[in-house]
Write a structure and sequence with these properties.
Length: 151
């Protein structure tokens, strides 16, 4: 069995300096005190081991008729992993994770005028078994709120 990749302090420093995803490796190398090839190899290794993704993000409010919500989901005991797997694959779901607190799962979602929150509830979430209840938190504002585009 493959051991999980663990990020070290150097990896984290590289990630901090790759914040916009387009920073040249040579610039990152100067900031963290490594060679360009070392930075390139470390990034390649992190990508290969699925501990890093370099993606574009968008603020949903910047796109006409788009919005987002965070949905808290309570599930029947002992079904959390199964429900999480299903929710993660639903249309409109940007990310989902098991959490501590009053919910078992939190899902970050995105909607637009063609695929509305109502569509999500009626066509997607309704078909997932073992959900006890949900509570939706619509995002109103957030200067740093950015998501992977999924619609």
């Amino acid at each position: 069995m493959k051991m999980p990749y663990k990020l070290d302090k150097v990896d984290l420093e590289i990630i901090r300096n790759l914040w916009n995803g387009r920073t040249p490796y040579s610039e990152v190398a100067k900031k963290v005190g490594l060679t360009t090839n070392t930075v390139r190899n470390r990034v390649k290794n992190m990508l290969k081991n699925d501990v890093l993704q370099i993606i574009s993000l968008v603020n949903p409010k910047a796109i006409k008729n788009h919005n987002s919500a965070i949905i808290g989901i309570k599930v029947k005991p002992q079904n959390t992993r199964e429900v999480l797997d299903k929710i993660s694959k639903l249309k409109g779901v940007v990310a989902a994770a098991t959490v501590s607190g009053r919910f078992d799962i939190m899902a970050v979602t995105m909607f637009n005028e063609e695929y509305t929150y109502t569509n999500f509830l009626e066509e997607e979430l309704r078909n997932v078994e073992n959900i006890i209840s949900t509570e939706t938190f619509f995002v109103i504002e957030g200067d740093t709120w950015q998501l992977r585009y999924v619609l």
